[in-house]
């Protein structure tokens, strides 16, 4: 079974993928980690690399290709990434969302930075990503039509989220 989990920064995609992976014993990969690794390879911060990627479509294309190739090579895999659902043949495509302030607080805590800095960085990053997705792939990140399940994670902990996903898997 191939499952994609997408969502904006701080919506809980990585944590949900990790918990679900443990519960159903299916490995997961993170497009965010691949992107971060690519930034490190270039010696850039995530913000710098996002800006760099705006003018270098090869970055996004390579990221998308790596995800699709990994899914093709796997029988069972959870792929976590904002655009994974668009490039991976999946049995279940999930989008997680959460209010902006919730996402900022999660990132602030996770990355040990002030909420103000987290908000500023998220806005810069999301504008950059939305622009790239539209220009490179003609994808509007705010259109959820491709997803089988859209879930607001604001009121649920990671275990609850995985249970909702497991319940969904039982009916498909």
From TrEMBL:
Catalysed reaction(s) here are: CMP + ATP = CDP + ADP; dCMP + ATP = dCDP + ADP
Q: Does the keyword Nucleotide-binding apply?
A: yes
One GO cellular component term: cytoplasm
Q: Tell me, which GO biological process terms does this entry list?
A: pyrimidine nucleotide metabolic process
Keywords associated with the record:
ATP-binding, Cytoplasm, Kinase, Nucleotide-binding, Transferase
GO molecular function terms attached to this record:
ATP binding; CMP kinase activity; dCMP kinase activity
Q: What is its EC number?
A: 2.7.4.25
Q: Which residues bind ATP?
A: 7-15
**Main EC class the enzyme belongs to:** transferase
Entry-linked Pfam families: Cytidylate_kin2
Q: Where in the cell is it found?
A: Cytoplasm
- UniProt similarity note: Belongs to the cytidylate kinase family. Type 2 subfamily.
Organism, by scientific name, is Methanobrevibacter cuticularis
Q: Corresponding gene? A: cmk_1
Entries under InterPro entries matching the protein = Cyt_kin_arch, Cytidylate_kinase_dom, P-loop_NTPase
Q: What is this protein called?
A: Cytidylate kinase
């Amino acid at each position: 079974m191939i499952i994609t989990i997408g969502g904006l920064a701080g919506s809980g995609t990585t944590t949900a993928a990790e918990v679900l992976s443990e519960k159903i014993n299916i490995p997961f990969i993170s497009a965010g980690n691949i992107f971060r690794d690519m930034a490190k390879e270039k010696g850039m911060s995530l913000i710098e690399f996002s800006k760099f990627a705006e003018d270098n479509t090869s970055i996004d294309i390579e990221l998308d290709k790596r995800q699709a190739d990994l899914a093709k090579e796997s029988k069972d895999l959870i792929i976590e990434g904002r655009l994974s659902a668009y490039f991976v043949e999946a049995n279940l495509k999930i989008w997680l969302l959460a209010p902006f302030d919730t996402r900022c607080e999660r990132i602030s805590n996770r990355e040990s930075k002030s909420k103000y800095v987290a908000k500023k960085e998220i806005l810069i990053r999301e504008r950059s990503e939305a622009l790239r997705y539209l220009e490179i792939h003609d994808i509007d990140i705010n259109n959820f039509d491709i997803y089988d399940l859209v879930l607001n994670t604001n009121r649920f902990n990671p275990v609850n989220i995985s249970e909702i996903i497991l319940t969904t898997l039982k009916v498909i």
